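Students often ask why inverse folding is considered easier than folding. One informal answer: many sequences map to the same fold, so there is more than one right answer. In these notes we will look at a single instance of the problem. The structure comes first.
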């Protein structure tokens, strides 16, 4: 028979009340909530977390793909325009804007921009973020920032022109790291759950 505590509440009722409050309180960390949830409830929460996380990853991947593809197409057209301008001894210009490109090596700068966007698109695939990829990102970001800073003397528009591909690569790399980190956190939580079950 359950005993009454000092406040006149039965011990069993207090335990049930505490368990209910922990289950219903979203502010309680998931690790603490799984201690009082049934095995089926734990599996359901983990499955929901995994599904929601994968849906978020798929959405942000599509979201980041759109500007990257647009930047790549414009930069490829710019490379073509620069080559044509050199053959005709004309000043290369930024596509759509018509602003003259005053960079000493516009074709090299454009190639760096194209490689940056291509690497960003490659990162968005279903693959890990390896140390080799991180090294390539560092090299291209450094080269892109160098081009952008050097072009700053020619005006803000040209500075932004060379900066955008580099910024796209940085944003994509950070987003990729965040996606992989969230997936890893959920997997570690699932492993911890099964370890506690087998203990």
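Output (designed amino acids):
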């Amino acid at each position: 028979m359950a005993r009454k505590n000092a406040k006149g509440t039965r011990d069993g009722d207090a335990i049930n009340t505490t368990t209910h409050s922990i289950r219903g309180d979203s502010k309680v960390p998931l690790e603490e909530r799984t201690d009082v949830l049934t095995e089926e409830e734990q599996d359901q929460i983990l499955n929901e977390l995994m599904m929601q996380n994968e849906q978020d990853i798929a959405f942000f991947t599509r979201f980041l793909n759109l500007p990257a593809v647009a930047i790549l197409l414009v930069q490829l057209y710019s490379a073509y325009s620069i080559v044509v301008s050199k053959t005709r001894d004309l000043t290369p210009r930024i596509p759509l804007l018509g602003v003259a490109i005053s960079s000493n090596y516009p074709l090299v700068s454009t190639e760096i921009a194209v490689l940056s966007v291509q690497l960003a698109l490659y990162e968005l695939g279903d693959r890990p973020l390896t140390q080799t990829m991180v090294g390539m990102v560092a090299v291209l970001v450094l080269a892109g920032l160098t081009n952008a800073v050097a072009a700053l003397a020619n005006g803000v528009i040209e500075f932004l022109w060379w900066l955008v591909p580099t910024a796209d690569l940085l944003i994509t790399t950070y987003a990729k790291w965040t996606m992989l980190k969230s997936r890893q956190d959920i997997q570690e939580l699932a492993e911890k759950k099964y370890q506690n079950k087998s203990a």
